[in-house]
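Run log // design_07
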């Protein structure tokens, strides 16, 4: 029993030291609440056991991390209060979607278009790039995408590459235009008839004035 406790303490100390700085609990996390194995039931932690670590910050948001002891995946993945996890699968999916989008740069805007052969409208571009990698298809129109329950609302300050950004151009608070955030204040879009798919700046006064909101659709529950 004494030797088992020593192994447990040593393991936890090693995990704390070895995990990357971004994965360490925030300074405002107030307490750890559980250590559980990936499978059902509790198990003694040892060098061959994977486990979850749950904690809550002062706002009650869940900070969840998993530790996989397999040599290729010895790192933590955090989940914030919105239930979003950054895993290898999510990262790979995001990169594939962004590459698929950027490959369409210069293609013509075509109302109703949703393929490289015919061209794209704004939601057709998103429909084409995302649905090849999600477990279930997104709706076809910008407004339906905006209201889709699988999309997690995010603020402008929380934007990450791959988030959908929505605008109301002609219809008040109805989403009638959608693009995809790329990072550094830029998004890719199929703008309008006579234009081609391009990268634009969210800091442009036009887009600032017509901003409606953003949704995160690359999440653990949407990635196949």
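design_07 sequence
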């Amino acid at each position: 029993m004494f030797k088992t406790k020593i192994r447990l303490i040593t393991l936890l100390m090693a995990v704390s030291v070895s995990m990357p700085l971004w994965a360490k609990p925030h300074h405002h996390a107030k307490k750890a609440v559980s250590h559980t194995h990936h499978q059902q039931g509790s198990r003694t932690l040892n060098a061959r056991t994977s486990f979850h670590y749950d904690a809550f910050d002062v706002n009650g948001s869940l900070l969840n991390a998993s530790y996989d002891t397999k040599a290729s995946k010895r790192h933590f993945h955090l989940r914030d209060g919105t239930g979003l996890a950054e895993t290898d699968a999510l990262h790979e999916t995001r990169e594939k979607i962004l590459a698929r989008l950027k490959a369409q740069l210069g293609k013509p805007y075509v109302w109703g278009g949703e393929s490289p052969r015919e061209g794209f409208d704004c939601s057709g571009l998103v429909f084409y790039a995302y649905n090849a990698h999600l477990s279930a298809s997104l709706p076809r129109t910008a407004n339906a995408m905006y209201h889709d329950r699988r999309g997690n609302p995010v603020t402008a300050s929380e934007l990450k590459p791959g988030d959908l950004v929505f605008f109301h151009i002609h219809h008040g608070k109805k989403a009638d235009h959608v693009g995809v955030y790329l990072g550094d204040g830029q998004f890719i879009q199929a703008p309008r008839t006579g234009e081609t798919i391009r990268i634009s700046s969210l800091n442009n006064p036009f887009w600032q004035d017509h901003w409606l909101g953003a949704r995160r659709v690359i999440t653990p529950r949407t990635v196949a």
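The first strand starts at residue 31 and ends at 37.
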